[in-house]
Write a structure and sequence with these properties.
There is one protein chain. Helices cover 22% and strands 22% of the residues. By secondary structure, the protein is α/β, with parallel strands linked by helices. The strands form 3 sheets. The chain has a 6-stranded mixed β-sheet with strand order 10-9-8-11-13-12. It is extended.
Length: 336
């Protein structure tokens, strides 16, 4: 048998597995349009453009691990018609003015952002059934002051029980207190009062399950149809009826964001000094404190300041006492 001669056509060249050379250059997306995120669910984001078009979008891979949350202003490209089955891409998450975030507990360091770009934080509590829990209210207030968000406490079910005294004390920190009744003859007036506060603002509702948050949303937004739940007679806790945050448009302009009922709100990611900066007069006084002052010591500059004006002593004492309780933010089990 004569030996066979081979040429290059007989050689099998294995396809190269190398990919296209990576580059730091990224598309400019000059044709992108701005949209407001209203829901985020399993990788799909619903957002509304300035023209009122509701668009479904997904996060572009180039954004990496950066999260998209309700309240974000994003840039979208692709199919932005909003027609059924269409899908746009989120290519930019614009810088947030602020955000409401939490950690799982006070020992955790991983911060989870819930919503962003907020004007007002409405802390919804019930005067009874379930009983208001000061620990969680304090935590919401600390987060609001830290992010320069205006806090408002909404007390529901005041026809069942009066507003607790400790909630009234928050007024000295500049926190507005609004009450609502379950009685029909008072309900319309209460809702109208809240709507005036919400006009042209982005407002977030937070609170325990069972305090009447979803009921309040249904009264504020026609057609919202948020599921409502009862309080468990055995545990005294509400049942979760909202599983994720959702932004709903208000008739007179603005947005209201409903959030899931929260039982734990860790604050290990916050800076205490930024909280005090929300109270300019107190912040000015503590500049005279010793380094590392916890503002509870006898040597704290707040003591002489309280006593320096007899006419303002009571008011200053109440304000400082309330602020000190916020700064403590002791690890507590809000589910108790």
């Amino acid at each position: 048998m004569t030996p066979r001669e081979y040429d290059e056509s007989d050689a099998r060249i294995r396809p190269s597995r190398t990919t296209r050379r990576r580059t730091k250059d990224r598309p400019s997306h000059s044709d992108s349009i701005t949209a407001f995120v209203t829901t985020v669910d399993r990788g799909r984001t619903t957002c509304v453009t300035d023209d009122g078009v509701v668009v479904t979008a997904m996060k572009a891979r180039e954004l990496g691990p950066k999260s998209v949350v309700v309240g974000d202003l994003v840039e979208i490209v692709g199919d932005v018609t909003g027609t059924e089955g269409s899908l746009a891409r989120i290519v930019v998450v614009n810088e947030r003015t602020n955000s409401l975030s939490r950690t799982v507990d006070d020992a955790a360091r991983v911060e989870r952002t819930i919503v962003s770009n907020i004007d007002q934080l409405l802390i919804v509590v019930a005067s009874a059934n379930p009983e208001p829990r000061r620990g969680l209210i304090d935590r919401f207030l600390v987060s609001a002051f830290h992010e320069s968000i205006k806090p408002i406490i909404v007390v529901t079910k005041v026809d069942i029980s009066p507003v607790p005294d400790f909630i009234q004390e928050y007024k000295t920190l500049g926190v507005d207190i609004i009450t609502t009744s379950s009685k029909l003859e008072n309900r319309a007036r209460d809702i109208e009062k809240i709507l005036e506060i919400l006009d042209d603002k982005i407002s977030v509702l937070v609170g325990h399950s069972g305090v009447g948050k979803s009921t309040l949303i249904n009264d504020l937004v026609q057609g919202a149809d948020r599921m409502t739940g009862d309080v468990n007679d055995v545990t005294g806790r509400g049942r979760h009826t909202s599983s994720s945050a959702v932004a709903l448009a208000l008739a007179n302009g603005g947005w209201i964001i409903d959030t899931p009922g929260i039982r734990a709100f860790g604050l290990s990611h916050l800076n205490r000094d930024r909280i005090i900066e929300s109270f300019p007069d107190i912040y000015q006084v503590i500049q005279k404190c010793m380094p590392n002052c916890s503002h509870h010591e006898n040597s704290c500059a707040l003591g002489p300041w309280i006593e320096s004006d007899p006419e303002l002593r009571a008011e200053r004492l109440t304000r400082v006492t309330s602020l000190r309780s916020l700064l403590e933010v002791k690890p507590v089990d809000e589910e108790r």
